[in-house]
Write a structure and sequence with these properties.
The protein is mainly α. The chain contains 14 helices and no strands.
Amino acid sequence: MLWLVMGILSDLLVHFVNPSMIIITALGVSIAAGGLSYVVRRPGIAAVMIVVAMWSIWLSPLRIVDRWVLPLTELLLGVIIAWWSQRAEIGRMRPRDGFLGFIILILVSVALSVSLLLGHLATLSTNLSLLVAAYLLTPPTELLIVLMILTRHHVTQSFLRRHYQWNAKTLPLVGWGITIGVMMSGIIALVVEWEIKAAHIKIQSNNPFVYAKGLSGHLGLIAFLMIVAIVIMAPVAEEILFRGILFGTLRPAWGLGWATVVAGLLFGVAHMNLTLLIPLTLAGMILNLVYWKTGSLIPSTIAHATLNFLSVVIALMALH
């Protein structure tokens, strides 16, 4: 069924001219490829099925770069997931689970970037539906990735109970999370200012809505969508992946120091913005230590959400 869906979406991708539909369809292809490989669990079989399903793209009149990069990205995505799914242990997560989530995020970002080029990147700043498809669909995809990892190990309920347990003792962690988020925002602002003045780096915002001046008439809808995706979904998904899974498995294997640095660096790299790599890596390291100190994902998630909320406010102010 997933193979059939992937084939249909691949064929539609070649024929669509609406940029937003191209992005959504490309994401659908990635999800179908991942789901297919997750179920098949054999890299060779998954690879053959993905190659056959994407025949319409291989043979399309698209530019050779577009015709090859997207299918090869999906092929690599499928093979990696099938290899991982075959070796995943019930009830036990390892560092490779966190690395897997990171690699999937990068590959999905590459697939979306290629589909953006297919859908006329120049219209991004003036097309609301394209911006929503290209930017705000990533957090739901991150949630699917962490659910795939937790479900494959059969630890979803136990993981969420252990890391998001709410009671009278955890309520103060909310206040700590907000405080840490505000402090992180200030630290990042100082680092960015240093990058601009001392290192002469031209900073590019992670939020494309900052540059979408022509969409100020849709401020209410944009605010709602950004809050749902960036302030709620993204912090939950990324804290589970980078703190709960990646840092949580790296710390006993590599020690606190290396786990903090590596998980923080991958968190920064995953945002695909070289100009913000240093401040985002620093933010990731701080969140790692918050999780290590409290043993709960509640304060790090609240801190992450606070940081993202402040960035959304800045983006809305720029639009207004």
